[in-house]
Every structure is written in C-alpha cells, then in structure tokens.
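Components:
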Amino acid sequence: MTWQVDVLTLFPEMFPGFLGYSLAGRALEDQRWSLKTHALREFGLGRHKAVDDTPFGGGAGMVIRADILDTALEATKPEDDRPIIYLSPKGRLLQQADVVRYASGQGAYFICGRYEGVDERIFQKHTIEEVSIGDYVLSGGEPAALILMDACVRLLPGVMGSDQSGVEESFSSGLLEYPHYTKPAQWDDYAVPEILLSGNHGAIASWRKEQAENATRQRRPDLWESYQGNHK
Ligand code: 6GU
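Structure:
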C-alpha cells in the first residue's frame, strides 16, 4: 500500500510545490507515496464561493466556517485510519517521534487554514490532531503541510536509499549532529580535524559523540536536559 496524503486547501496549486524538486518529488514519481488535493473553495457558498466569515465577538480577520469545512471533510476525508491533521501555530509542537509515527502509518489528511483560523466547533465533531511546526507564525498552513510531508516521505521505505542517513541522525539519538567534512583536507587556511584522517574508527566515533554532545549542550539546553535524563 502506498503512503497516501490528502490535502484540503484554498490553494491546491501550492502542491507539491518545492517537494517536486527534491527527494520527495522523485519518490512521488516513483509512486512511493501519493498526493491528492481538495479545493476547499469548491465547498464555498454563493456566487463568490465564500468559505469564511467575520468572527463572533469582533476582532480582526476572518474565520473559516465550520459547516463548510464539515461538508468538505465529509466529502473527502479518508475511509481508512489515517489521521486528520490541522496545521496551526497553536497546535502541539511537531517532534521527530510524530513524524516517525505518521510515516509508519497509511498516510495523512491535512487541513490547511488561512485567515485567523477555523471555527473551533469543527474539533468537537471531528477527531483532528492540531499540529504546529514551530514557534513562529506563517500566513497559512500550506508550507507547514509541505514541511511535514517532506519529513515523513524521506523516512518511507526505499526513499533515502540503502544508506544509514535516515537512522543515524539528530533527534533519533537525542543529540544534534556532529560536524561533517569532505575534500580537500586542507582548504585555504582551514584544515580538517586531524582525527578524521587517522583511520582510527573507535577514536573517530568518540570524537563525533563528544562534538555532538558539546553542540547540543551549547545550542539546545532543552534537548541536552532530556538527553542526560535518558542516559542516566
Ligand atoms: Cl502548522 N501553521 C501556521 N499557519 N503557522 C505556523 C504553523 C502552522 N506552525 C508554525 N507556525
């Protein structure tokens, strides 16, 4: 079974977007996953196919109507157990563990919002995971959906090839990655760390671990705390 993505959006033209140019685009061509968009506009009301309205209680911006979103969901939502994910800055912060969980399932159904958001009552009727990709605000959920897809697709069988780069990486070890170097060994005034040229694989592994730990301690005290907790 191919890993299947559906996206409900006001901007279907944004997909596959930048994914078409990378590993995920190649994997899409190779049918290692599938992508289907659904235009929310088609479910809009009246001559202008309106999908939103002004917020009750006043305030800026527009809110996507729950009834319209519901009609769209009922018409297009998955028949299988794929999660319905609403991308929003007030969602639970996406972690690599979530990406691994999504990638190991059948796929996902993404709802991309715009404006100030969606009428909250949609979450009462439907089981929807509200997910954020970081503590900053985007103008819409589409780039976030693309990013989440990219993170999942690279983990699908056969997508990254036979190398180890998908397993031995940051966030599965709990540490940031150690630094990488390639030829030339001497570039202008800058030399590659001597140990990497030593051929001593044990010493190299220790050095890399130390580098990863130092980087994590300095840059990400939050990750460092939980790493230490997990390695007691
Ligand atoms: Cl998932 N959506 C939007 N609109 N902004 C975000 C986000 C998502 N994650 C961080 N900022």
